TrEMBL record:
Membrane-protein topology: Multi-pass membrane protein
Compartment(s) of residence: Cell membrane
Family, per entry: Belongs to the binding-protein-dependent transport system permease family.
Source species of the chain: Oenococcus oeni AWRIB429
Origin organism lineage: Bacteria, Bacillati, Bacillota, Bacilli, Lactobacillales
Entry's Gene Ontology cellular component terms: plasma membrane
Main subcellular location: membrane
Listed PANTHER family: DIPEPTIDE TRANSPORT SYSTEM PERMEASE PROTEIN DPPB-RELATED
Residue intervals of the ABC transmembrane type-1 domain: 95-305
Protein name: ABC transmembrane type-1 domain-containing protein
Segments crossing the lipid bilayer: 9-27, 99-122, 134-163, 183-205, 241-266, 286-312
InterPro entries: BPD_transp_1_N, MetI-like, MetI-like_sf
Superkingdom as given in the UniProt entry: Bacteria
Length: 319
């Protein structure tokens, strides 16, 4: 399996190169420039053209791309036009917040989805199954940003149970106070993201449990007198996890990409909010780095899903 993983990683190299070229060209094709509005409003057109020339934005695209690649291999992604700081430092600061929120949402999603899917499949056609299916249908029909807006309005403003902006309270002093404040700020966006993310997992898992109940190995286990709880725990649950495991890698990387909506609504200082602000200010260096990072994460998510699937089911080997 390790040889296969290494071969897949080598295949990813040309994919990443093509992705970097496309991302670089799309960022440069955006209208406007990163200097208008960010300097003295009284500055004339000549000064803006001078800044564009000094920063090499008038050079041919292939020369700009080559310079960017050379700096990339030296660990330098350029300097942000908006923040006047290295891009690596800015993304590094924001990546921590996005990573913690994404991990918390993933864990919460599976803690909610797995019991619901198994319970719905086990009680097919009964009231619990009907309630869970109604929940998945309603959640699936409502756009994610609507759920976020409703959640922040009800639980943030009306009830006042959770903070609505930021990642850490400015009054938090000390390590434990900072950790507690960070967790408190992640609760509402994490719960809303998990409730939205459970829909597909619950539906897939319920369908697999329903199909597994009528399979030959389950009938054989029942004929041998195996307790029903052991059948669900050792047979049905393990085999029903196969499609869920196949999408596990995509769900993790998808949360990082979907952080744009969550962080924008909650003003959460992560990579998603940084990406939106960078587009507004035409911060080409940050835009290129973030889109390339998200694209690489999606590519590795494919490999991660295959690895998880082969671990869950030893009969499957990625080739």
């Amino acid at each position: 399996m390790w040889k296969t993983i290494l071969r897949r990683i080598l295949i990813m190299i040309p994919e990443i190169i093509i992705l970097s070229i496309i991302v670089f060209l799309l960022a440069k094709a955006m209208p406007g420039d990163p200097f208008t509005g960010s300097i003295n409003p009284r500055a004339g057109v000549a000064q803006i053209h001078h800044l564009m020339e000094v920063n090499g934005l008038y050079d041919p695209w292939y020369q700009q791309y080559w310079n960017w690649v050379v700096h990339l291999f030296h660990g330098n992604l350029g300097e942000s036009y908006q923040y006047n700081e290295p891009v690596t430092r800015i993304i590094g600061q924001r990546a921590v917040n996005t990573l913690w929120l994404s991990l918390f949402t993933v864990v919460l999603t599976y803690l909610i989805a797995l019991p619901m899917g198994i319970y719905a499949g086990r009680h097919e056609g009964k009231l619990p199954d009907t309630v869970i299916r109604f929940y998945t249908y309603v959640t699936y029909c409502i756009p994610f940003f609507v759920i976020l807006v409703l959640g922040i309005w009800i639980f943030g403003y009306v009830l006042g149970w959770f903070p609505t902006t930021g990642s850490v309270s400015p009054t938090a002093n000390g390590t434990f106070a900072t950790i507690g404040s960070r967790f408190y700020h992640m609760l509402l966006p994490g719960i809303l993201g998990a409730l939205f993310g459970t829909v597909n997992i619950v539906q897939y898992l319920r369908s697999e449990v329903v199909d597994a109940k009528s399979s030959d190995y389950v009938r054989t286990a029942r004929a041998k007198g195996v307790p029903i709880n052991d059948i669900y725990r050792h047979h049905i649950f393990r085999n029903s996890l196969l499609p869920i495991a196949a999408f596990a890698g995509y769900s993790i990387t998808g949360l990082l990409n979907g952080a744009i909506f969550t962080e924008s609504v909650f003003s959460y200082p992560g990579m998603g909010l940084l990406f939106v602000n960078s587009i507004s200010y035409r911060d080409y260096t940050v835009i290129t780095a973030l889109v390339l990072l998200f694209g690489i994460l999606n590519i590795f998510g494919t490999l991660l899903s295959d690895i998880i699937l082969s671990i869950v089911d030893p009969r499957i080997r990625i080739e």
